[in-house]
Each structure stands twice: as C-alpha cells, then as structure tokens.
Amino acid sequence: MASPSAPTSAEPDTFPRLLMYHAHWRDKHPALREKNLGIWQTFTWAQTAAEVKKLAAGLHSLGFKRGDHLAIIGENRPRLYFAMMAVQCLGGVPVPMYQDAVAGEMIYVFHNAEIKFAIVEDQEQIDKLLEIREQHADLAHLIYDDPRGLRHYEQPGMMGFDALLTRGEGVLASQPTLVDDEIALGQASDTAALFYTSGTTGKPKGVVQTYAALIDRARACTEMENLTVYEDVLAYLPMAWIGQNIFSYAQALVTGYTVNCPESPSTVLNDLREIGPTYYFAPPRVFEGMLTQVSIRMEDASAAKRAMYRYFMEVAKEAGGRILDGAPVGLGDRLLYGLGNLLVYGPLRNVLGMSRVKVAYTAGEAIGPDLFTFYRSIGINLKQLYGSTETAVFVCVQPNGQVRADTVGPPVKGVEIRITDTGEILLKSPGLLKEYYKNPQATAEVLDADGWYHTGDAGWLDTDGHLKIIDRASDVGKLANGTLFAPKYIENKLKFFPFIKEAVVFGAERDMATAFVNIDFEAVGNWAEKRGIPYAGYIDLAGKPQVLELINECVEKVNADLAADPRLSNSQVHRFLNLHKELDPDDDELTRTRKVRRRFIQDKYGVLVEALYSDKTEQYIETLVKFEDGRTGKISATLKIRDAKTFAPLAQAA
C-alpha cells in the first residue's frame, strides 16, 4: 500500500472528497479529539467518515437536498464538525452561527438564508430555535446532540443526534452508495459554506465561499509553513468565525492534522496545556487575556521572583526576537537568554500551553506592537496575518525570519495588492468570496469590474513589500489641525496594559484625542486587594481615585510612546474616563467577535463624548443594559474625567 502521504492523480477538490481521501490513506490517524468527563476521546479519520456518512444519509431521509442550508450552533464539538461534513456530502450549505447570540440576533440569518434544518449542541440552543420558529415557520427539523434537559420536550421535528444516526444506518443498509454518489456530484466551484459577518455597521451579510477558494488558501499556508499530518490544533473559538473555520476545519481537511475540542469554555487553558498544540491561532484579545493572567500571577509572586521576572524579561526584550529570527546575537546575550529560558521563559510557555508551538498566528484585528513583541521575546513564534471572511483569511502572512511588529507581512502566494490614492487596500486572490448571499448591491460595492476586492482597510506597502495596516479606512481620519488620527492603533497600545481590557479613542475632526477605558475587572481587582482598597463591584472599582491614577499612568506611558512617532505624536490622549460598565455584545457595543462598534458607542454615549471635550471634571450617565436572563434594566454613575499629561513630539523637541 502507498504511504499515507501518497498523492493521487488529481488532488481532492471538495471537503467531502478530502475526508474520504484521509479515511482511505490514514484511516487510523486521529482526526478529532474531544475531552469528555475529563477524558480525551479520539475519532480516527475512518471513524469520522463512517459517522459522517450515517449522518448524511439520515439528513437525506428527512428531505435535505442539494443546495439546502442548515444552521449549526454550539461550542466546538466533533459532532458539529461531522454535521458540517455531512451537509457538504449532500451538496448542501452549512451556516455556522455564534453560539452566544440571542434568538433575536439569529432570526435575520434564518430568514435571509431560508433555513429549514438546524443541528445544535444542547437545550440552550433548542430553546432559541423554538423561539425563532415562532417567527420563522420554515424551520422544520431541529436536531440536538446533548439530550440533557430535553426529556419532556415534545415539539414537531425535534430529534436527537443518535436517533438521526440510527435512521441513517438504516438508509445505508438499503442504499449503500447513496452518500458516495452525492459526493461524486460535487464540484470545486460549489458553495462550501455561508459565513455571516459580525455586522459592525448594520445587518450581517452572508459571505458565500466556494470549495476552490477555501481549499486554495488552506493549501497555500500549509505549504508556506510546512505543516504536516502530525500537527495538533485546539478548536476553541466560535465555529461561525472564519478564522476558527479555516484553522480547525478547512486546513485540517487539506492537511490531515488533528483537531482537539476542549471540554468547555471554562477549561480551555487547562486543555491547551494538556494538548500542547503545535499550530495555534488566536485573536489579539486572547493573547491580551493570557498576558493579563501572567501579570496577575506575578503580582502574587514573591519579591525575589518578581525581580527575576523583570530582569529576564528585559533580556528577552533585547535578544529573544532576534534569536527566534535567526539574527546575529552576542554570546553574552545568548547565555543570559539561555538562563532566562531555563528559569522564566520555558516555565512561562508551559503555563500558557505553548511549549510545542511551531507557529502561532494572530489576526482579526491589529495587535499592539508591545503585546506582539512580548510573546516573540519568550520564544513563541507568533506571527501576524491579514485577511477576512471575504478573502478566506490568508492574504498576507509574515514568513519566518521576516517577522516585524509593525507589518502583517507580504502577500501570500496568489495574492495581488494595490493601494488606492486614498490609502485603501485593494486585492485580488483565489480566496475571494463568490458573492454576498442575495445582496448584489453589497457585492458590487466590494468587488469592482476588474476583479479587485475593496477591503475597507487603510495601509501601505513598505519598501520590503510588507503590508502595514493603519485602521479601517472609515475610522482613519484627521485631527482638526490636519494631522493623522488612527484610533485603533492608539487603542491597541492602551490594551497592552493588563489593567485595560478595552479602549475607545475619539478625535476625528476634533482638536485633541480622548478615550473611554474599560478596566480589566480581574486584574484591577487583584491590584486593589493587594493595596487594601475595598470596592463593592465594577462601578465602584472603576471610579476609585487610586484606579483612575493607575489608568492615568498607563495613558501617559502611551502618550510618551506616541510622542516618538512623528505621524501620530499629535494623537496623544489628552482626557479620559473609566466607563461604568464593560462593553458587551449583548448591549450591541461589541460584535460577537468582540470588535468595537465605534459609531454605535459614540452615539450611545454621546453625553460622555461631549463631556470629554468640555471643561467638565465629571459627568452623570444612565445606561440601559440587558441581563443574561433577557431582562433589561438601568445602571447609573457619575464618572470622573481625568486630564492626562502629554509630551512634546520628539522631532520638535530635538
């Protein structure tokens, strides 16, 4: 028999064909693992293919047909991945949705995609579907994986996952080639999945991606990074997000590596340490959260350990990144870094679950340069990539040896980039969307007649061909004096500090930059407790004079950094306030991928914005909030406004 990596005369060009390829050539290799009741359960490629065929046959018996859409909702679970594969085997289109979205948010997608079938994780999601069905009568079939809490539910069209598999088994007994025949009908140009954007500026749009686009981009990055079937990834981000889908589904099917599903969202860090992934992906907010945990642990450490940590982190800052890039480093620095690796960096990577990482990516939004440098300095090969749902993720990736904090790397193989006179990034790529579903006007707005995709991002290509992203083109502006204002860049610098969870910076067409700050409740709470500062909750803690001073120190450090940048030195934050609540997707302030909805926040908190640009030192605010049980209420507070120290631009000072 040929080796597991033996090529075929024609490479599989759809996900179902890739699944069957792996089931044949590496039948006993682990495809998926799931931690259940503390024990890792493994599904080989052969087992996966067998389950998928039964599931596909069961769906076929319910009337699911080629071109139909099926909603998939839940945490990362092997059975939900099986569902995606089964739908694609039948020529259908999976529509993954955010599991934490409320029914009211989902209803638009069900209407727009004309969804009749849904496969979900548990009772929580079934309850949402029943609520949705009151407004979307076409939803006929509701299939659930976890039966807990559903024993007494008697609803038409409801069925357990196991019952559907049994049904499929019976179908295959009489029609053994049914699923194989359907797979044979698939084409590379078929729609592979429908991904709905997070909707920062309005209703979400359904991005239609084909097998050809997703497979091409997955292969391009697999070749670039020399990924093999022996990689391990952890699937912990929402299945609805294209980033999670490309790394834990498309690339897994292209490469044949193993996808690991954590037991629950609360056990992700423990599961990360147990698995020790070799290939890792996370948006900046995850890396920010990890650094916050490190900072809290160091606050709790002894004075000797804190001193050792600070010393060796300075060594890492000087030498770590250069050693990782293979650049020349003096013998003394190498020896010191080696000692630091033994005492600090190695144990730290182990605590973070990154001891085996060959390559780690971050994307979704820009990462602060300080945060990026921190991870590379301790020996984690973290790289930035640039892409979106509409581009199948891989547009630009930093190659090994060419990793810099201020770029997202050069274009990946097959991608062309052009910068317009206004600074907007345009691109051509094999990974471009086919269209926005049932929205030709929106499609025409982003895909021009010459095939260029208009990203809406602002940036430029440097002399080395690396792309630099400033911000969303719509958010980049100018201060009243005409100088550049890029709020996301400033916000990322603020969020490097463990005490700041989120920041929203204002200043376009104004005479100065100002900011809202969300404190990190855990990090600031830990800081306050160590100093004997009592507090009653988030509002009380955020308004403490000592906490305002703590955040002021962070803002002023950012201002000192901005003073050294001739383009952004005028964008230093002059005034700020600590918000009385965390920005929340349920309150429409963040998207489900936790991107700031800047315009919404500016309108919602207009009274606070105007207070920042007045001579006021405090401002009363009443805010409507949504609670987890669906109720609404109001919270109020009088927020203190602080003036931060600004610095003369270094170019002028010199």
| Mean pLDDT level | 92
Radius of gyration: 26 Å
Strand numbers in spatial order across the main sheet:
4-3-5-6-7
Strand percentage lies at: 15-25%
Please, how many helices? 22
State the CATH superfamily name of the largest domain: ANL, N-terminal domain
Count of distinct structural domains: 4
How would you sum up this structure, described in words?
With 654 residues, the chain is α/β, with parallel strands linked by helices. The protein has four domains: 15-281, ANL, N-terminal domain (Rossmann fold); 283-357, no CATH class; 381-473, Roll (Luciferase, domain 3), CATH 2.30.38; 477-653, GMP Synthetase, Chain A, domain 3. Helix content is 40%, strand content 21%. The protein has a five-stranded parallel β-sheet with strand order 4-3-5-6-7, with helices on both faces. A five-stranded mixed β-sheet has the order 23-24-25-27-26, with helices on both faces. Strands 2-1-11-10 form a four-stranded mixed β-sheet, with helices on both faces. Helix 1 (15-25) crosses helix 2 (45-61), helix 2 packs across helix 6 and helix 11 (284-300) runs parallel beside helix 17. The longest helix has 23 residues, at 303-325.
What key attributes describe this structure?
5-stranded mixed beta sheet; single chain; Luciferase, domain 3; Rossmann fold; 4 domains; 5-stranded parallel beta sheet; disordered N terminus; 654 residues; alpha/beta
